[in-house]
Design brief:
By secondary structure, the protein is an alpha/beta fold.
């Protein structure tokens, strides 16, 4: 279906029952604050974000060692907002220590399955805490402490999540690194962050083959003298012998195992740096976003995923993601804060067979499933029968993030995974805001890719290029009118770039870089990145609207639509498409796809070119990199490619476009 406002008289795909609304966490929070509905709550939160966070922290029993004296200090201006001034806390206090001496302590926190399904492990909260304390003690013994940056360059192992909390426990700063990085992106991030230590593995299994990690890190560290220590998990053993540098390198099983199983958590200033997570810029070096001990828990974990998206203590969470994306931190913190459990899986969703992802959900009784839309697009290519083979009745809730949906994969997930029974709670924000700019709730009906409303207290607006509000139905730039608790505390050692990247484009507004539309039914839609703007014959649109039309034909699984200069129209469309398995990428298919765009958008939108590709370049969080596609098509510099999960796709695309 088209996502334009003229379609708002269409029925909703999902509508909440009165019973679901009544029993939701959001309803409990509305009663807690004395508001009648989400919309009145949102208005009050925007008017007083400090009040909102007071209520969130009370409702979610946020723990402090020393209470704060001021919730929100704006004396330095919105870009330099300070939260929980004077208070001390720690992420570990709120996610792990809070459960000590409660029934949760002996319950399972983490279950892990290797690429070989016969490899499985489980850890209770008590066992997980003991391992955190041992690693934290080992790091302290090596001289690592408060304010030191420690990288995590790990595959999906239990030790990856142990490392996340152990670093925080001693007051050091976590630097998550994508497990598929080569040497250069590691060099860039470790040097910029001034990392003092790195926790890694000898390697991992990748589609049945050995994937080296320690040797890659060794190559990078030849140019990163600030790293003094490397702790290595022996995942592959004699399958991958690795060199160990005396004095610098330490085997996990030798250094960590002998440490005591108890250690006090370090009290930290509430607004002290806790996580340094890099997001790639269009040009130049990656941007180091800084989360604090209150920011991520106060935004994504409590406000967004618990209150708006209904995550609960009894849920088992599964979002197949690398620690190098913000979802890694979500997997660590969301279930642990509320006493839930987490499924961690090494490898890919479709190996050793195409039903692996659904089998993981079935066998481990996942109740709360997170996905990126790209994952569903890829898995749907294997057909309906694959997912129908598995019992997914344990699922209670679905949520998605990372990029904009198109309608066809959204409906496929709704029908075949959620059985038309479960909502897909769509969220969007980013590393830079540490939470959600737009959310879904159990109080609001849904259509494909819709959002219920703005994140609470973020002051969201939709404006024109000049900063003026746009009318309902019009495409505009997503802006935030005020600081929210999750926002990055500047960029790592680069205040000027922070202001230029977010606050100086439209003075007084945070410009996030997303195109958004609000329809007459009150629903919001993200239409892609605003730097992917396409202006055809004077009309601005985002690529998602056109990509919807192409995927709706059922002939392509993935699409990237870009605008290229055109003398008469301003911009012309180029559609790069990945055909469904078994379809011939011929002229007939090219004409069919071109006709779908014309029929849906009008003749002025007739594509200049339809190019077929094996795959599209994607970041590690599975966002399609349209700017790379556009640069390749135009023969320009694609910019920073360090975040690509499939860099080989760029050269393949270059060859295909040269022949198109």
């Amino acid at each position: 279906m088209s996502l334009n406002p003229a379609a708002t008289d269409a029925p909703f795909d999902w509508t909440p029952t009165p019973e679901l609304i009544e029993g939701s966490v959001l309803t409990a929070f509305l009663r807690h604050v004395g508001e009648k509905n989400f919309e009145s709550l949102s208005a009050r939160a925007d008017a007083d974000p400090g009040w909102l966070m007071e209520q969130v922290f009370q409702f979610c029993d946020f723990r402090f060692y020393k209470p704060y004296t001021q919730m929100l200090d704006l004396s330095g201006g919105q870009p330099w907002a300070r939260w929980c001034v004077g208070g001390t806390t720690n992420i570990v206090l709120n996610c792990i220590d809070r459960h000590r001496d409660t029934p949760v302590w002996d319950q399972t926190f983490l279950v892990w399955e290797g690429e070989n399904p016969e490899e499985q492990r489980g850890l209770s909260y008590a066992e997980f805490d003991a391992e955190i304390c041992r690693l934290a003690g080992a790091l302290r013994q090596l001289g690592v402490g408060k304010g030191d940056v420690v990288g995590i360059y790990m595959p999906n192992l239990p030790e990856t999540f142990i490392a996340f909390f152990a670093i925080l426990k001693i007051g050091a700063i976590v630097m998550p690194l994508f497990s598929g990085f080569g040497p250069q992106p590691l060099i860039t991030r470790l040097q910029d962050g001034g990392a003092r230590a790195v926790i890694t593995a000898d390697g991992t299994w990748r589609r049945g083959s050995v994937g080296a990690m320690k040797p890659v890190l060794d190559e990078a560290l030849a140019q990163v003298p600030c790293v003094e220590h490397v702790v290595v998990v022996q995942r592959l053993g004699d399958k991958l012998p690795v060199a160990m540098q005396a004095g610098r390198d330490h085997w996990w099983h030798e250094r960590v195992a002998p440490q005591p199983a108890t250690l006090a958590t370090e009290p930290m200033d509430a607004d002290a740096a806790a996580v340094l997570l890099y997001t790639s810029g269009t040009t130049g070096k990656p941007k180091g976003c800084v989360w604090t001990h209150v920011s991520f828990l106060g935004s994504m974990v409590t406000r967004d995923m618990h209150i708006c998206c209904d995550f609960r203590a009894g849920d088992r969470y599964f979002f197949l993601s690398d620690m190098g994306w913000m979802v890694g931190a979500m997997c660590a913190c969301i279930p642990s804060y509320f006493g839930g459990s987490l499924l961690v899986a090494e490898g890919t969703p479709d190996y050793p067979d195409t039903g692996r992802f659904w089998r993981l959900i079935q066998n481990h009784k996942v109740s709360y499933l997170g996905v990126a839309p790209t994952l569903i697009r890829n898995l749907s290519r294997y057909g309906n029968e694959e997912v129908e083979r598995y019992d997914l009745s344990s699922l209670r809730m679905l949520h998605s993030g990372g990029e904009a949906w198109t309608a066809a994969p959204w409906r496929w997930m709704f029908e075949h995974v959620g059985k038309r029974r479960l909502p897909i709670l769509n969220i969007v924000g980013g590393t830079e805001v540490g939470g959600c700019n737009l959310v879904s709730t159990l109080h609001h009906p849904q259509r494909p890719s819709s959002f219920a409303g703005p994140g609470l207290g973020v002051g969201l607006g939709i404006v024109s290029e000049s900063g003026e509000p746009v009318a309902d139905g019009q495409v505009g730039e997503l802006v935030l009118r005020q600081a929210s608790i999750g926002m990055t505390k500047s960029l790592w050692k680069d205040d000027a770039r922070y202001l230029d990247s977010y606050w100086n484009t439209l003075p007084g507004l945070w410009v996030h870089g997303d195109f958004v539309r609000h329809d007459a039914d009150g629903m919001y839609y993200v239409l892609g990145r605003s730097d992917d703007t396409i202006k055809v014959s004077g009309k601005r649109t985002g690529p998602t609207e056109i990509e919807n039309l192409l995927t709706a034909t059922g002939t392509v699984s993935e699409v990237a639509v870009i605008g290229v200069p055109d003398e008469s129209k301003g911009s012309a469309l180029v559609c790069v498409c990945v055909p469904m398995p078994g379809l011939v990428a011929d002229e007939a298919l090219r004409q069919r796809l071109s006709k779908a765009v014309v029929d849906g958008m009008g003749t002025s939108y007739r594509p200049k070119s339809v190019v077929f590709a094996e795959e599209l370049p994607k970041t590690r969080n599975l966002k399609v990199m349209r700017r790379v596609v556009r640069a390749v098509y135009q023969g320009g510099d694609p910019g920073d490619l360090s975040a690509l999960v499939n860099p080989q796709a760029v050269e393949d695309l270059r060859l295909r476009m040269a022949g198109s």
